[in-house]
Amino acid sequence: MSRTFPIAFPSLSLFLVCGLVWVAGVQAQDYIDVEAERRGDPAAQTYPETTEPGPGFVPQPPAGETGSASSAGELFYQLQLLQQEVMELRGKVEEQEYQLRQQREQSLERYLDLDQRLKRLEGGGVPAGQGAPTSTGIGAGTVTAPQQELPGESDAYRAAYSLVRSQQFADAVAAFRQFLVDFPGGKFAPNAHYWLGELYLVQVPPDDESARREFNLLLEQYPDNSKIPDALYKLGKIYFDRGNRDGAREYLDRVINEFGDSGSSAVKLARDFISQNY
Amino acid sequence: MMRQLVFLLLLVATSARAELVIEITQGKDNPTSIAVVPFAWSGWGSAPEDVAGVISDDLERSGQFAPVKLANMLSLPTREADVYFRDWRTTDVEYLLIGRVAGDSTMTIEYELFDVFRQTKVLSGRETGPAEDLRMLAHRASDDVYQQLTGVRGAFATRILYVSVQQGYNAPSTYQLTVADADGARSEVIYESSEPILSPTWAPDGNTIAYVSFETTRPAVFLHDLTTGTREQLTNFTGLNGAPAFSPDGNSLALTLSKDGSPDIYVLDLRSRELTRVTRHYAIDTEPAWMPDGRSLLFTSDRGGRPQIYRVDIATGKTERVTFEGPWNARASLAADGRTMVMVQQESGQFRIAVQDLQVGRVQILTGTTLDESPSVAPNGSMLLYATKLGDRGILAAVSVDGGVKFRLPSRDGDVREPAWSPFLGDP
């Protein structure tokens, strides 16, 4: 117990002792009354199990004050335990209620967010630069303007992307590859390259060579795409993991130098990575 | 409990009076630069108080301002006609405050505040009052300057209550209830006892206080009028009588009593002396704090196994839990906005002051020391005072509600604890 507690908030153990004395005073009398009634009541005999001595029960003389007091003491002890347990349970229920409420709110938010994004996709894309790109890739609707959306493209892209969300990575790789075959110059092609790069890195075992190829392709073919800082950061990490610290540093510095003002989350990631590893 | 307290207090051995001295430990990153030029003194003899120094210290303590050192002032104007803005522009001073003090038994402070870049006067003011209140007049000037520049009402012209404990060798300990200006100056012992004094709190009128005293050998709540010095014992119930808190209208006092068994929250109507029981639970319910509407109370309860903050509607008794972050939260205190709640949070044996936004539920830990307790918020909601430890000594410290500004008010001697920040006093 802290020293704060006894001042404003009396020590719990101390309080329990006080409580015990108080409860004992009232409850002991109740218990004695009940006992006396039961003894005088022949009906009690019909419920032998209630008076059956339990383990550790010491038979008492009929007017045994001390006996009543000690079994009363046992009862108060039980009551204390019960109260303590109810309190702990109450605390748990309160906390779970709170967590449940929070989760409900969060899942509603997530649903609204997803719904909004799906509507955007169904509605035929997004204006350029809208939606913050993130290296975790939640900004799936982010594309650059020049490419035109092809018929059926957004459905195919969405299908492939949903595999990413459901963490079916192998299927997602296949789906994005097929997507690039079906819609090579499509509006979502840069995103597909980016996702392939990410997916090659998360599959087991990771295929960093393929990932590097996809990210480089994105860099060369779509230099204005909003996923470029993320791709540069990922390339930096791939080089670093391969032991090429200098090559990695070049990519990371590019993220910071070229996109330092863009508000891209990759900039912070690159900075953190440098400060942790260099 | 008494024994425990006394034992704890024995650990601190000092003597004499607890005067508080301020040390700023952390300020804002970009404080506003302001020059407070020494005020002209036209009274008899030497100036009784360095008024400009008081104002300058006030502004610095807020963490929002960086006062310019006297040595860096190129000129020392005391009248508008003597102000040359180029003297201040060259040293990047943003604001300039000049003034004059005059009087004998009644003192008058006149001052002008200038925006150096715009070269305009943005505020002029005048404070008049008895000579012994000259520091308070200076604090009022600080309040006006602060409000002009930050948009928030200043809380420099306020007072604080705290309990200090003196323990001499072979002598019984002495508990002192002290009232001082918010900067720790002009401290005055208003009640002294060889038995513990706890939980001092202010009535909204800024003149009546309540506290728990053990002078009758058991805890009892007392009312104390600061102007007349009259005291009145309010409660004398068996068991605990503690944690008094005045309602926002000042007509009722919430408190903790254990007369009916376990400690519960009661509300005492100060006019009819009628007592209403608000909580009824075999767990410990204590430390009530009023919501600004006066209809519900925050309190600490361990009904969930460990102390947490709950809110109870006084009329309906409906109770809900307020804190969920951290395994242990106690001693809630509310800022005047009714939304910013400060409390003591304990985690892994560390007691720290945390602030929770009651509307969005966000919690921020404000202090980094380990035994921080008894938070009390300034009436303007900008800072809060709390008790902490410096070495093995109890001291008071303050932190801004956003955690950015910190200062300490260590006492020269003795152990200081349980601060209570007054409401706004009188006319600003």
Main sheet specs of chain B: 6 strands, mixed
Instruction: Using the CA coordinates, give the radius of gyration of chain A.
Output: 35 Å
Radius of gyration of chain B: 23 Å
Any idea of the CATH class of the largest domain in chain B? Mainly Beta
- The protein's oligomeric status is heterodimer
- Category from helices, strands and their pairing of chain A: mainly alpha
Beta-strand proportion of chain B: 35-45%
> Can you tell me the CATH architecture of the domain at 119-226 in chain A?
Alpha Horseshoe
Low-confidence stretches of chain B: 1-17
Number of helices of chain B: 4
CATH class of the domain at 119-226 in chain A: Mainly Alpha
Number of domains of chain B: 2
- Can you count the helices of chain A? 11
Major beta-sheet overview of chain A: none
Distance between the ends of chain B: 42 Å
User: How many strand elements of chain A?
Assistant: 0
CATH architecture descriptor of the largest domain in chain B: 6 Propeller
Classified in CATH, the superfamily of the largest domain in chain B is TolB, C-terminal domain
- The CATH topology assignment of the largest domain in chain B is Neuraminidase
Could you provide a short overview of the structure?
The complex is a heterodimer of chains A (about 280) and B (about 425). Chain A is about 70% helix and about 0% strand. Chain A is built from 11 helices and no strands.
List descriptors.
heterodimer, A: 278 residues, mainly alpha, Serine Threonine Protein Phosphatase 5, Tetratricopeptide repeat, 0% strand, elongated, disordered N terminus, B: 428 residues, mainly beta, Neuraminidase, Rossmann fold, six-stranded mixed beta sheet, 4 helices, 31 strands, 10% helix, 44% strand
